[in-house]
Amino acid sequence: MMVSHNSLEETNNGKSMNLSLDGIPESTKEELLNPPAKLLGQAMSGIIHAVFDPLIKFNIVRDQQLKDFEKKVQSGTNEIPEENRDDSKIGLALKALEESKYQLDSEELREMFANLISSTVDNRKNDSVQPSFSSVLKDLSPLDANLIKLFAGENHVPLVSIRIQDDNGTGTEFNSNTLIFDDDIIENELSLFSLERLGLVMLNPTSELKSKNNQEKYQNFENHPSYSSLEQMLPIDSGEFVFTQISLNKGTAGLTPYGIAFVSCII
């Protein structure tokens, strides 16, 4: 990595990314570019204020949100053992700080950005950090963030939809892409498709999980109000078709390899 006091240059796949340090106090630049281990958190705080203080001035970012974010970043970086502190990807930490300013109004995303910044300067984790991770975080909604946290705990989960059909097999689906986690059932296609679009999760609506635990989840969903209430309504006359049968389509949703690396750095 090439370093100057005016910019940081991070090379990735032959391409370079320059992040300006203009406007940052010289003492903070020095701490960031050549940080003694004990000063890493302090240097990060200096960068945070350089990036965010102008936004505070114009009420774009709230002071309390910034204080909470600064506390999370300092806490995360200070917890890294001295022998594991590594500034070789400091350019990606600055990129994450820059992009975090779009998401400080979300507690979940403040936490995730702070964790990403800490992972970037921790040699136990930063081999997994990709330049795109901060951009992905910038594009998440709070609901998306909550959903990716659930995937982080279970990786692969049952994905179901309810199908009703007539005696000839003509039918329609309800509650498409419902996720069955250990402690929750999530019906949020918008966030699920957002995570899929970003390459974090993969959906396979026709391949079911075979473990005993997951087979029980599929079976237990048939007692869920979404399924049982529709079953009790049969037969359903739509005017064109008479639906007489109900079944559960069983699939799988899970983290991609990219998603696994992503959650390891943000949670």
Q: How would you explain this protein's 3D organization?
A:
It is a single chain. With 267 residues, the protein is α+β, with helices and mostly antiparallel strands. The chain has two domains: 2-127, no CATH class; 146-263, Translation Initiation Factor IF3. Helix content is 46%, strand content 21%. The protein contains eleven helices and ten strands. The protein has helices spanning 26-33, 40-57, 63-78, 90-100, 107-120, 133-138, 142-154, 189-197, 212-221, 225-233, 257-266, and strands at residues 2-3, 7-12, 15-20, 156-165, 171-180, 185-186, 201-204, 236-237, 242-243, 245-255. A five-stranded antiparallel β-sheet has the order 6-5-4-10-7, with helices on both faces. A three-stranded antiparallel β-sheet has the order 1-2-3, with helices on one face. A hairpin with a 4-residue loop joins strand 5 and strand 6. Helix 2 runs antiparallel to helix 3 (63-78), helix 3 (63-78) runs parallel beside helix 5 and helix 4 runs antiparallel to helix 5 (107-120). It is elongated.
Query: Which regions have little confidence, pLDDT < 50, spanning 5+ residues?
Result: 1-21, 33-38
Instruction: Give the strand line-up of the largest sheet.
Output: 6-5-4-10-7
| Overall structural domain count | 2
Percentage of residues assigned to helices: 40-55%
- Strand portion, in percent? 15-25%
Any idea what the radius of gyration is?
A: 24 Å
Please state the oligomeric state of the protein chains shown.
single chain
Structural class: alpha+beta
Average pLDDT across residues?
Answer: 84
**Would you report the number of β strands?**
10
Helix-strand sequence: EEEHHHHHHHEEEHEHHEEEH
